[in-house]
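Progress note, sequence design subtask.
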C-alpha cells in the first residue's frame, strides 16, 4: 500500500512529460505572427487547451487518490482495539479482545507500520548519554563494544537482578519498581498480551553499536528491550509488532519513552525519561 502513492505520482509526472513533448507538434518551429507555415491553426489551439484541461483534471484525481491511500494507511496503522488510554494511575484500563482466529490477540506479533512516530513520546524527553553522565557519571571508566559490569558505585548499589512481571531484568531498583507498575496495569487490562511479552535484554554497559564514543543508554540500568513471543523486531524499518504499539501507551503513562520515535526507529526499546529520572533524584530514590 505504501507504494501506491509513489506509483500514482510517477504516472502523473509521466503524462505531464508526454504532454510537454507533444506541444511542438502543435507549435511548429519558427512560429510567430504572419500567414506562413509557423502559424498555429485553430484546431491546434483547441487541442492544446483540451490537453491543459485534461492535465488539470488528472492532477486533481491523483491528489484525491493519494489522500484516500493516506487515509486508508492511517486506518490500518491505528487498529481499533477498543481500549481507553491508560492514565498515570492505571485505573479504568480495559482492552476488548475479540475471540476467534482473526482476534487482536492472535495478531500481537504481527508487524505493522508505526503511525506518526515522531510524536509518540509527547511531553517526555529522551535522556541523552550526556544527560545520564551529567547526572550519575559514566557507568564505568573503560567502555568497549561488549557488555561489561557496571562499576559506577552510585548506580551499582541500586542494581537488582530479578523477575519483573513476565520477564527477567537487571536494572536500577526504582526502574524495576516502575516497570512492575507498568506490567501490573498491562496484566489487568490485557492478560493475553501480558503473557506474550518477552525480553531482548536490559543492562548492557557498552558503547552504542558502531560507535567508540557514545554510551548506550542500556549502560545505566534504566532501559529494557521487549518483544512479542520472542520474535525480534527489525531495527530502523519504521515498523513494529502490534503488541508493542499497545505496550507503548502503558509505558508513556508511567513516564517512559518508546524507541519507535527515535531517529533510527528502535521499537523494542523502552527507557525511563529525563522527567522520571529527575523525579527519582528529587525523591532521593537515586
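Output:
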Amino acid at each position: 500500500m505504501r507504494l501506491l502513492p509513489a506509483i500514482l505520482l510517477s504516472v502523473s509526472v509521466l503524462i505531464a512529460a508526454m504532454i510537454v513533448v507533444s506541444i511542438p507538434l502543435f507549435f511548429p518551429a519558427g512560429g510567430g505572427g504572419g500567414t506562413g507555415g509557423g502559424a498555429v491553426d485553430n484546431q491546434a489551439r483547441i487541442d492544446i487547451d483540451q490537453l491543459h484541461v485534461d492535465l488539470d483534471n488528472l492532477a486533481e484525481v491523483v491528489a484525491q487518490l493519494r489522500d484516500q491511500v493516506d487515509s486508508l494507511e492511517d486506518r490500518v496503522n491505528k487498529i481499533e482495539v477498543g481500549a481507553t488510554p491508560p492514565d498515570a494511575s492505571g485505573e479504568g484500563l480495559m482492552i476488548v479482545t475479540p475471540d476467534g482466529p482473526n482476534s487482536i490477540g492472535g495478531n500481537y506479533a504481527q508487524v505493522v507500520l508505526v503511525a506518526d512516530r515522531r510524536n509518540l513520546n509527547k511531553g517526555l524527553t529522551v535522556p541523552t548519554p550526556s544527560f545520564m553522565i551529567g547526572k550519575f557519571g559514566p557507568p564505568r571508566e573503560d567502555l568497549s563494544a561488549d557488555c561489561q559490569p557496571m562499576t559506577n558505585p552510585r548506580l551499582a548499589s541500586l542494581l537488582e537482578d530479578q523477575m519483573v512481571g513476565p520477564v527477567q531484568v537487571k536494572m536500577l531498583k526504582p526502574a524495576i519498581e516502575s516497570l512492575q507498575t507498568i506490567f501490573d496495569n498491562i496484566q489487568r487490562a490485557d492478560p493475553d498480551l501480558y503473557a506474550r511479552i518477552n525480553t531482548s535484554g536490559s543492562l548492557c554497559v557498552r558503547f552504542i553499536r558502531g560507535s567508540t564514543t557514545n554510551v548506550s543508554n542500556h549502560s545505566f540500568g534504566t532501559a529494557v528491550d521487549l518483544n512479542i513471543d520472542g520474535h525480534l523486531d527489525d531495527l530502523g524499518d519504521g515498523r513494529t509488532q502490534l503488541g508493542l504499539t499497545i505496550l507503548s501507551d502503558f509505558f508513556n503513562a508511567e513516564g517512559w519513552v518508546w524507541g519507535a520515535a527515535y531517529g533510527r526507529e528502535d521499537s523494542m526499546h523502552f527507557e525511563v525519561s529525563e522527567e522520571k529520572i529527575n523525579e527519582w533524584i528529587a525523591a532521593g530514590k537515586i
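The mean pLDDT is 78. Work on this subtask will continue into the next period as scheduled.
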